[in-house]
Amino acid sequence: MSDLDRVLSRIDADFDTSLARLFDLVRIKSISTDPAFKSDCRQAADWLANELTAIGIPASVRDTNGHPMVVGHRKEDGKAGPHVLFYGHYDVQPVDPLDLWERDPFDPAVVTRPDGSKMIVARGSADDKGQLMTFVEAARAWIAETGGLPVSVSVLLEGEEESGSPSLHPFLTANKDELACDLALVCDTGMWDRQTPGITTMLRGLVGEEITITAADKDLHSGMYGGAARNPLHVLADILAGLHDETGKVTLPGFYDGVIEMPEDVRALWDKLGFDHEAFLGGVDLKYPAGEQDRTALEQIWTRPTCEINGVWGGYNGAGFKTVIASQAHAKISFRLVGDQDPEKVRAAFRAYVEAKLPADCTVTFHKHGGSPALRLPFDSLALAKGRKALSDEWGREAALIGCGGSIPIVGDFKTMLGMDSLLIGFGLDDDRVHSPNEKYEMTSYHKGIRSWARVLYELAKG
Amino acid sequence: MSDLDRVLSRIDADFDTSLARLFDLVRIKSISTDPAFKSDCRQAADWLANELTAIGIPASVRDTNGHPMVVGHRKEDGKAGPHVLFYGHYDVQPVDPLDLWERDPFDPAVVTRPDGSKMIVARGSADDKGQLMTFVEAARAWIAETGGLPVSVSVLLEGEEESGSPSLHPFLTANKDELACDLALVCDTGMWDRQTPGITTMLRGLVGEEITITAADKDLHSGMYGGAARNPLHVLADILAGLHDETGKVTLPGFYDGVIEMPEDVRALWDKLGFDHEAFLGGVDLKYPAGEQDRTALEQIWTRPTCEINGVWGGYNGAGFKTVIASQAHAKISFRLVGDQDPEKVRAAFRAYVEAKLPADCTVTFHKHGGSPALRLPFDSLALAKGRKALSDEWGREAALIGCGGSIPIVGDFKTMLGMDSLLIGFGLDDDRVHSPNEKYEMTSYHKGIRSWARVLYELAKG
C-alpha cells in the first residue's frame, strides 16, 4: 500500500473527527466586520494556531492592527517538490437577516436531503472554514500516517477577508521573506458542478475610472438656455455610447493588445463542460449574451475584456420634473482585463478617448479607482498539471479549468508582492449560499476535498 | 392738448404719489408659499381691491381654496376697441437668505446710483408688484383725467403665482364667462435692455418624459456577469446619444414638423438688437452655442425646438467604486417646442424611437411629465402692432419682439381656457434680482412703464 493510499484510508477512517473539528471551528462567531465579535475572531485564530501546532505545523497568532493572522511552517528538508504557502481565511460574514435562517447559524448540523445526500449547514461551513479545513485535515492525515508532509508547507490564515483585508498588505510587506514560497495554494473557490472538480486559472483584472464632465459653471434653466448651452449629460451620453461598436467590441485604440485567445484544447474542454447559457442568463431574467457578438457568454465572462458603466448621475433625479441643464455629469466606468492587458495603458487610452470627444466648452476630471492586471496560471504550468491529475484521480472526472470574471485580491498580492503563482482549488458549489442565510457545504465537498488536497500534496512532491 | 398728452402729464405730476402707493403695497409681506403669511396675502388682495375700486374699476376679493383673487371690471360702453383683461400677481417670493439683503426687504427705498439713476429696492418691487402697479397707475390717470378708460378693462390679480398657481385653473373654469375678453394684457416680463422696450411674442412649449430601462431583474456583479449581461446604462447612453445628429439637430422623425421660420423682417429686427452672444454664454462660463450649428444662440433659445436631458441616474454613485451592473437606468428628458409642433406627436415619436432602439432583453417604461404647445402672438396681429407703436412712442426706440425660451403658464391658460391671445409687455431688466436678495425695479421702468400702459390703452382704443 502506497503512502498516498494509507493517507486516504486514514482520512476516511477519521472523517467523523474531521467533521467534529470543523464544527468546533464553525461554532466560533468570527464575524470580522462587526467589532462586537473581536474576541471571537481572536478565539478562532487561537484555535487554528493550536490545531496546526498539534498536528505538526508549528504556528502562532500574529497581531496586526486588525484581526490577527495565523502563520505556521513545516519545513520538510531534503524533499524535492516546491515549498507551498496555503492560504485561507477564518473570518465569516455577518448572519443577518437572522430570521431567514432555518437554525442557529453558529450551531452547525449535518442535514440529510431526501435523496440521501448530506450537507453541513452553518455560517462559514463553506466560506471559508469548511474549505480551509480540507487542507488542514489533509495535512494532519499525512503527518499522522507518514510522519511528515510530501512537501514543505507554510500556512497563512487571515481574519479580515470578509472586511476588505486592511491588514494584509502591511503584513505581507513586513513578512515578505518569511512568506514568499514557490507556489501558493488557495482554497476559496468552487467546483465546476457537483460532480466536476475545478481549478480557477484565470482571474480578470480591473481598471476603475470616474469622470466628471463640467460645462456651464452652474445649473441652468433649460427654458433660458436650452439649445444654446452645452448640456454635459449629452456629452456624457455620447462618450459612453461610443465606447462600444455595433458588434459589442470596445472601441478604445489598442484595447485588445495583450488579450490572449484560448488554446484549442482549453476551448474543447469548455465545450465538454456543457455550460448552460440559458440558465446562466435566465437566472437573472435575461436571454441574449450582450457582449461581443462572436463569443459565448462563458467566453465573455472568463476570457474577454469588458467595459462596463457602473454608475451614471447628473441633473435632477427626484420626483416630478425640473427643467434644468446640469453643470456637471458623472460616470463610474470599469474595465475587466484579461491576458496581458496593461491596466495603465487601458486607463490612458480611455482618458485620451474622453479628452478627444470633449467639446471645446467642457472640461473633464478623472478619478482613478484602482487598477490590476489579469492573473492566470499558464496552461502549461507544472503545478496546474499536477493539480489536474490529483483532482481527476479523486473525482473520476477531468478537472475543469475555470475562469473567474471577478478578481481575488490575494492572488494578485501573492503575485506582485511575493512573486508566487497561485493554484486555486476549492470545493464550493454555486448553491452554497455563502454570504446568505442557510450557508451550507456539501459533505462530499468536505470529505473529497480533504482527499483531494492529500493527492495534490502527493503530486506536487513528485517534482 | 390731446387726451393722451393730458394723461401723460398727470402721470408725471402725480408720480410721487404713484411711488408712495407702490411702497404701501410692497410693505405687505405677501409671501404666498409660506402659510405664516396667509393673512398678509389677503391684506394685499384687500388693498388692491380697494385701490381699484377707488380709482373707478369696481373690484372685489374672491375666495379660492388658496390665496384670494382680485377681480375688477370697468365697462366702457360705446367705445370701439377690444375689451382687455389685465393680469398680474400680488404675491412675492420668500426673502431668505435674509442676511444677504442690504436692507429690510419689506421696507422699500429709492436708492440713487453714482450715475444718478435710481432704483426701487424691495421684495416685489419688480416681480410683480411694481409691474402690476404700472398698469393700475396708468388706469388711474386715464380715469382721473378723462373720466374713463379708452377701452373696457377687466383686471385679474392672482396671489399664488410664486407657488404654482393651484387655484388658477379652477377659478378660470368657474368664471370663464366673466373673465373671457378680447385680449389679455400681461405685465410680468422684461425689456430688451435698459433703453429698449420689449414685447414677448413667442413662448416655447414643453414636453417632459421620464424613462426607466430594465435589463436583468436584479443588480449584478460585473465580475460574474460583465460582458454577457446587458447593461441598461449602456442602452440608455446609446438612446440618449442618438437623439441628436452631428450637426445638433434632433433626429426624431417628424420632429421639425410645424416649426416656423422667422419672417425676414423679424430676423432683421433681431440683428439690429445686437444680442451679445458672448456675454450671454460667457455669463455661465461657456463660449460656443451648442445647439443646431446653423443657428445663433438667440435663434436657438427663442425660435428653435430642443431636446434636453434634464437628469440621468442608475447604478452606483456613492464614494469609492462598486462593480455593479445595474438592473435599471433612468433619464428625464424634455423637449422645448416652437411654432405649431404638436406635443403629443413629439412624445409619440420619442417613445417610438426608444422602443426601436431597445435590445431584445430590455423593457422600458415611460412616465409623462406634462405637454404644452408653443404660444405666439402672430407677427401680423393688430394688438401687437398697437403695442409696438405705443412702446416706440414712449421709449423713442422700436420695441424688440422677444422670444422666451421658457413658458409662462398663464398665457397658455388664457389661450386654451379663455380663447384669448396675450400681449406681454413688461419693464423688468435682467439684473432686477427677482427671486433673489436685493430685488430692485428701475425708477424709469416704473415711471415710463405707467406712461407706456397709458399709451397702449390709447392705441388699442383706435380700433
Automatic annotation (TrEMBL), chains A, B:
UniProt xrefs under Pfam families: M20_dimer (PF07687), Peptidase_M20 (PF01546)
- Where the record annotates domain Peptidase M20 dimerisation, the positions are 203-361
Q: Which UniProt keywords apply?
A: Hydrolase, Metal-binding, Protease
Name the Gene Ontology biological process terms.
proteolysis
Q: Where are the transmembrane segments?
A: none
Q: Name one GO molecular function term.
A: metal ion binding
Return the InterPro entries for the record. Answer: Cyt/Met_Dipeptidase, Peptidase_M20, Peptidase_M20_dimer
| NCBIfam families in alphabetical order | PRK08201.1 (NF006053), PRK09104.1 (NF006579)
Name of the protein in question: Acetylornithine deacetylase/Succinyl-diaminopimelate desuccinylase
Query: To which species is this protein native?
Result: Stappia indica
Q: Lineage from the top down?
A: Bacteria, Pseudomonadati, Pseudomonadota, Alphaproteobacteria, Hyphomicrobiales
